[in-house]
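Quick one: structure for this chain?
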Amino acid sequence: MTDSASAAPHFLDAGSGVSIAYHRLPGKSPGVVFLGGFMSDMTGSKALALETFCRARGQAFLRFDYQGHGASSGTFEDGTIGLWAGDALTAISHLSEGPQILVGSSMGGWIALLVALKLAPRIAGLVGIAAAPDFTEDLIWAAMPPEKREKLQRDGVIYEPSQYGERPYGITHELIRDGRKHLLLREPVKLRCPVRLLQGMLDPDVPWQRSLRLADKLEGGDVRVTLVKDGDHRLSREADLALLCRTVEELLGA
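Got it. Here's what it folds into:
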C-alpha cells in the first residue's frame, strides 16, 4: 500500500450502488479514524498528517470520503447529516477492528459524535477540531435572513461562496430538515469516552464558544478544551498539526 496522497483510493461497496472511497493503514490497536468536514475530502492536511503519525507508530488508521465528497459516489447536494453519518458507520464497521479513536473536523466532529453514540463500546476516545454539532440549525438556518429562507424553501437549494475553494457550498432544504433529526446540544450528550476539543479562537465559521457548549453537554468527565488564540477554522498550520498529533498520542497512551 502506498502512502502517497495522490495514490488511487480503495472502494467499499456499501450497497445500492454506493461506493465509499477510502485509504486504510493496518496496524496496532486502538485504530484512528479521520472524519472530514462539510465539502472536504480525505486528502486534506490533517488527514495526511495523522496518517503519517500513525504509520510512524505502527497504528491502524482509516480515512474515507462521504457520499458526494472526494472520490466516493453520489452528488454533494443529495447528502444529509444522516446519510453521511451512515457512511461513517458503514466505513468504520467494515474497515476497522476493535477500539477506535475518532478524529472529526468541523462537520466531522458532529458525525464523530453521532458515530460514537452508536458504537460506544468500541470508541476509545474522540478528538474534535472546530467540532460543529448542530451547525445546520444553529450556524446556517439561524443566521439566514428571511428572504434566503424563503428561497431555500421554494427552490430546495441555495449556493453560498466558499472561502476554502472555488466551488460554492450547496445548502439544501433537506440538509436543514434532516439535520433537525440529529441535533445533539439540546440535551446532555450521553458519551463517556475521553474527549479532546481543539478550537481556534479566530475561527470565522464555528465560534469557539461552541466547543465550550459541547464540553458542558458531554456527560463524561474526561473532557478537555484547547483554545488556540490565533487559530483559524482549519487549524492546519504546522504547529496546529503537531498539536493534533500530540492530542491523539495522549489518547493512545491512555
